[in-house]
Specification:
mainly alpha
Length: 202
């Protein structure tokens, strides 16, 4: 018997889906309808091991962190390409360290989100819409200015991460642990930039 014959589970589920859409069906779907329905109905969905509320809290923390990290990698590269000044080489190379760390952690964060059943969103339009960390201005950037903007951007990202660490303490310790490790890395990078401009230029 065909799995789509009347009375089968597939036919029953199809009929219910059609009814919810306001379509009365008393016969099996056409081949085209069947393919479309199967692609939608049997699409792989990662089911979370977390309760719904814990998943929501952790998912939001991970998504916000993903945006910050992807944004940091972009502003780091922008500064990397445009930095000028007597400390060009050291700052130029240090900026690439931040970019590398941000990209690596962004991938880990996105995969953690997927693992708990939350689809990560790293699309350019998403980043452009919500990213709000300090960023360099257009054009050439003095080495001292590059150091200052990265210090500020990293500091803002760290402050947000600490809020998410608190928020995920009861929701998901695995996600919290990941956020703690990212915070440690960004604090290391910020320390290195802060030391570059000591004492700060007036």
């Amino acid at each position: 018997m065909s799995r789509w014959a009347g009375g089968t589970r597939a036919f029953t589920e199809w009929s219910r889906s059609a009814a919810r859409a306001g379509i009365a069906r008393g016969s099996p779907p056409s081949r085209h309808e069947r393919i479309n329905w199967e692609e939608h109905h049997f699409m792989t969905v990662v089911r979370s091991t977390l309760p719904d509320e814990a998943r929501r809290i952790s998912g939001e923390a991970l998504q916000e962190t993903l945006i910050d990290l992807l944004g940091l990698s972009l502003i780091g590269k922008q500064a990397h390409w445009n930095v000028v000044g007597p400390r060009f080489r050291s700052v130029h190379l240090q900026l690439d360290e931040v970019v590398s760390a941000a990209r690596t952690h962004a991938d880990t964060v996105a995969e953690r989100a997927s693992a708990i059943g939350v689809p990560p969103d790293g699309r350019p339009e998403t980043i452009a819409k919500v990213f709000s960390l300090p960023a360099p201005a257009e054009g050439w950037l003095r080495d001292s200015e590059a150091v200052e903007v990265m210090t500020d951007a990293l500091g803002a990202a760290i402050a947000r991460l600490r809020e998410r660490i608190d928020a995920t303490e009861k929701a998901d310790l695995v996600t919290q642990d990941l956020l703690i490790s990212i915070t440690a890395e960004l604090e290391k990078q910020r320390w290195m930039f802060e030391a570059e401009n000591h004492p700060r230029e007036s």
